[in-house]
Amino acid sequence: MLDRSEPYEHGTGAALAISITHSPARRESHHTDPGAEVTNKLPTHGCPPSALSVVMIAYLSKMRSSEMSGAETTQFLKLSSAVFYGLSSFLITVVNKTVLTSYRFPSFLVLSLGQLTASIVVLFVAKRLQLVKFPDFSRDIPRRIFPLPLIYLGNMMFGLGGTQALSLPMFAALRRFSILLTMLLELLVLGIRPTLAVKVSVFAMVGGALMAALDDLSFNLQGYMYVMITNTLTAANGVYMKKKLDTADMGKYGLMYYNSLFMILPALVGTWLAGDIDRAWQYEGWNDPFFAAQFLLSCVMGFILSYSVILCTQHNSALTTTIVGCLKNISVTYIGMFIGGDYVFSLLNALGINISVAGSLLYTYVTFRKKPSSSGGGSGDSLSSSDKKLLLPAAGRIDNV
């Protein structure tokens, strides 16, 4: 789950955001559902859990404060929502890696099962409390969203498998292949042709990843296979969602909830048949409160990440959200060299990783660059129609850049 993201993770990682219109009505009340207005316009993403808790508490307390001026409140919401998203996106990657590698938890399948269960429980409770909105169950929902649940489950499981098997720098570099696959699928299925600048930036990302792979001293064939399967599923998910328009009213939370609900039983059966439930049951680290806390956090971070993306884009812009996601991935790339203890330095590998990072920065710039409007009076946060056509869907989500 990467990126979703993330992820990726997740699971589930997204240059899939589109520009948000900043209307005064959206800031009149802090009691409106922050996800309702932007859910269908967004990408489907080493920091202690306490840091995230502090940001969440500060954010909620300021939301309820009536003593701040409107300008001060708006400025605080912009900053806190961006920090909240950055911490959430960073934390979900690091926590997954820590649980699977540092603590040597034996089964990424059991962890994905925990994430599915947590998504169902958290979203069900949040819907009952009217914190989020998505359609009630109906008989036509399975037909409307199929085969997205299968893609969602595979993306989550193989993404966590790649996280366990590879170092974070190589995992982040190889995940950028999903953007190349999305670009090719968009050309073949949707007929969307990227500009030369987008092609150059994508090839720089992929070329750097290939250079790094040529001298990966901790090479793991199984991990590479897991990541490439995840990239293929991520690209297929994004293009399929663009083509299948009858899922638009489901929203981000609705798709997450029903994907998890429909796949929980098959995932449980598959994990049991693989023998991973027994291995997880016999794991000796369950009595460690630090491991238990991080395992639980890994399970619920999918929902927290999705919520933070919505808040960040609502209070800032799609461009800000994408830049924060890109900066997060750069942080994961370099800080990840010291997390998990499985990265082995070599000059060619490090050079390739840096080229891939530079390509991701260039990609962010050329995809979201602001073009002057013909009247010269366009909004600074809005994107031209030609820019919107270049935005990759859920496959190239922020967490993969």
What does the model show?
With 401 residues, the chain is mainly alpha-helical. It has one domain (73-370). The chain contains 15 helices and no strands. The protein has helices spanning 49-64, 70-102, 108-128, 141-145, 148-165, 168-175, 177-190, 196-214, 221-243, 251-273, 276-281, 289-315, 318-335, 347-368, 385-390. The longest helix is centred in the N-terminal third of the chain and has 33 residues, at 70-102. The radius of gyration is 20 Å and the shape is globular. Mean pLDDT is 76; it is low at 1-48 and 370-401.
Can you tag this structure with a few keywords?
401 residues; globular; disordered C terminus; Sugar_P_trans_dom
| Amino-to-carboxy terminus distance | 16 Å
> How many E-type strands?
0
| Largest sheet descriptor | none
The number of helices is 15
Order of secondary-structure elements: HHHHHHHHHHHHHHH
Classify the secondary structure makeup into a structural class: mainly alpha
| Beta-strand percentage range | under 5%
Number of domains: 1
Biased composition (Basic and acidic residues): 25-34
Keywords: Membrane, Transmembrane, Transmembrane helix
Membrane topology: Multi-pass membrane protein
Transmembrane segments: 82-99, 105-126, 146-166, 196-215, 221-241, 253-275, 290-311, 318-337, 343-366
